[in-house]
Amino acid sequence: MPRSRHSDALRAAQMYYLQDLTMDAIARELRTSRSTVSRLLSSARDTGLVQIQIRSPLDTAPELEGMIRSQYGVDVHVVPVLDTLNEAETLDRVAMQAARTIGPLVDSNAIIGVAWGATLSAVSRHLTRKITHDSIVVQLNGAGNMQTTGITYASDIMRRFGSAYGARVEQFPVPAFFDHAATKTAMWNERSVQRILALQARMSIAIFGVGSVDSDYPSHVYAGGYLDERELSLLAADDVVGDVATVFFRSDGSSDGITLNERSTGPSHDQLRQVRRRICVVSGASKINGLQGALAAGLATELILDEASARRLVSFGAQS
């Protein structure tokens, strides 16, 4: 938004929401039309200048947030969603809230690590513009497989994040999994790859979803041709319940001995835990096994999820 329009939107929002002036009164004071005031107020909401919260005595989200915070030690945002909505509609609501939550956290000089996947793709479509300077969006893991380079899919997500925050985008042009661990070791010694790894090591924010083996809505890594039948069998034998940025874990958060991780291009759990702010976005109660494993591994500092998933997570935690 141009600076002058940004200033007008802020002024209109202050008069409307804080001073209880009518649109007609604001139009007179700003010497403009009522329709222009309406557009300014819409811009103020769309760009995050105004955030509206509704406190309902029937709302269970705050109670669920407190319980999850107590059980898992993460800051949490529960998105109220009707049970009648389907999986895609629920994902869209969660993605919208995630985009609004992430925006205020992004500052200038930030290095933002972003994983690819269906959840982050949805989030990227709801991001609102925010002016930052010298910020970088870096891809967390490679996206290629035997069927596709994955470049278009992953780069669309990175491009939307970069456009929203005026940030430079750094893609990671390697496969999601190498065929051999030795190949990964050799590539990690290449200077072009080391440059991306160095950026990842300096991340101030990491944003990711959770891939789940048994989700009703299959995660992209399990449904997109990234793993063959033998590899899926290996994951089952290792009791894997999910992944973050194509690095796998069990329900207790452990990842030792999972051989596929030696070929994965995502950051190790130890590397990820070094990032100060780690935002996990989850939609769909069938992902709870994967989410619980990610939380047990300490991979998230902040969690954004739908209400049904929050209820399942609280119930899961109470039983364990």
Automatic annotation (TrEMBL):
Coiled coil: none annotated. InterPro entries: Homeodomain-like_sf (IPR009057), NagB/RpiA_transferase-like (IPR037171), SorC_transcr_regulators (IPR051054), Sugar-bd_dom_put (IPR007324), WH-like_DNA-bd_sf (IPR036388). Residues 62-314 form the Sugar-binding domain. It comes from the Bacteria. The keyword Flavoprotein does not apply. One of its GO terms (molecular function) is DNA binding. The keyword Membrane does not apply. SUPFAM superfamilies: Homeodomain-like, NagB/RpiA/CoA transferase-like. Signal peptide: none annotated. Keywords: DNA-binding, Transcription, Transcription regulation. Belongs to the SorC transcriptional regulatory family. This is Sugar-binding transcriptional regulator. It comes from Arthrobacter cavernae. The lineage of its organism: Bacteria, Bacillati, Actinomycetota, Actinomycetes, Micrococcales.
